[in-house]
Amino acid sequence: MGGRDNVVHGALVYCMIFLLSIGIVFVGFLGLLLSSDTFHLHLQVTDKEPQVPCYFIFGDSLADDGNNNDLPTLAKSNYPPYGVDFPEGPTGRFTDGRLIVDIIAQLLGFHGFIPPFANLKGADILKGVNYASAASGIRDESGSQMGQVISMNKQLSNHFAIVSRIAQIMKSYSAANRYLGKCVYTVITGNNDYINNYFMPEVYPTSRIYTPQQFADVLAKEYSDQLQTLYSFGARKVAVFSAGQIGITPEMIARFGANSSASIDAVVQLFNDQLPSLVGNLNSQLSGAEFILIDTSDVSIDTDGVNVADTCCPTVPELGTCVPGSVPCSNRSEYVFFDGFHTTEVVNEAYAKVAYEEMSLFYNASAYGGVGGISRPAPSWLWNQRVGYSPY
Ligand SMILES: *[C@@H]1O[C@H](CO)[C@@H](O)[C@H](O)[C@H]1NC(C)=O
Ligand SMILES: *[C@@H]1O[C@H](CO)[C@@H](O)[C@H](O)[C@H]1NC(C)=O
Ligand SMILES: *[C@@H]1O[C@H](CO)[C@@H](O)[C@H](O)[C@H]1NC(C)=O
């Protein structure tokens, strides 16, 4: 069965936040499509070592596992019914269960989830850290109408602090650099630069300063600089997620109308159109770089019998987040969206599986003529140019 009407084409759901003239709207949106056989993915947890030694995570609410919990911001989800399907309950994850990055970590063979930078008590930082922050974006100001968020630039400086600690642990920056080149990195960002910035003219001037094409260009340039900074901190195996189809999320439709979905997504697509050459240029200019683009529109969901229009939890009007303490739908697998912007765990599983397969260059050398798994260290001048860096 599965008529085309039941297929959502689209986007990676992203987390974003809106301040509208009438109030504040929190937005997270993921765009993707699943097929029915990926909908119920069985994850094997084994005692084996992970396929890579470490996994570092950057991004927005699609990846945030608790970094905003203690910040003065409205972009939080550390209350029920979030986490209803998560073993630890509400943690600051914007979904019922696991995030895409949690599932990628499991598929890579990690036994626990990658801990948030904001709470590293007892954590082994050599296995990786999650820096992602809900409502944040590539631009420093994106999402700031919600309160404090941790922008990509700030996430990178947090990573630099961790890298310095790893260099201390390993007794030399070159050893740390070699080690960091074996880690996997994912970056899921960009949508809040639209939802919490460009599409919010009441708060941000960007849509008056830039045409959609100009904004896509400046955003891509800034993103490219950030990814080069990540490279300069030793990263080689970096999966960059494209921005999502934010126009089809329930909260965006509630706010702008279903007829606006396509034009909103067309503006975001101008940014996505830059990503293949952005990633290609990084790989050709940076020695040993293995950046890949995860194009979320490659994923498709067979939503037969699944509710794509409504949210699983009752949402706060104009905010899109779950009403605190509300009762969610009884079967989360019957919904694409948990809240107004964020997908349910079952959708996240489908996304994660596709991303993991596309990341096989990072962990499967035999499929790439022995190339996978090998990385060259960053030139030391790149390291040394970072302000305040000291390996000891
Ligand atoms: C949306 O578009 C359809 C088809 O063009 C049109 O019939 C409908 O009136 C529009 N709805 C709104 C709310 O503008
Ligand atoms: C929940 O929904 C899914 C998808 O429709 C279905 O396969 C599953 O059997 C349902 N679970 C329960 C407990 O009803
Ligand atoms: C690695 O690649 C080889 C060759 O394509 C394939 O047979 C194997 O299943 C892959 N292993 C993993 C873990 O993906």
TrEMBL record:
Which GO cellular component does the record give, naming just one? extracellular region
Record-level Gene Ontology MF annotations = hydrolase activity, acting on ester bonds
State if Metal-binding is listed as a keyword.
no
- Share an example GO biological-process annotation for this protein: lipid catabolic process
What UniProt keywords are attached to this protein's entry?
Hydrolase, Lipid degradation, Lipid metabolism, Membrane, Secreted, Signal, Transmembrane, Transmembrane helix
The family annotation for this protein states: Belongs to the 'GDSL' lipolytic enzyme family.
State what protein this is by name. Answer: GDSL esterase/lipase
- Please name the source species: Trapa natans (Water chestnut)
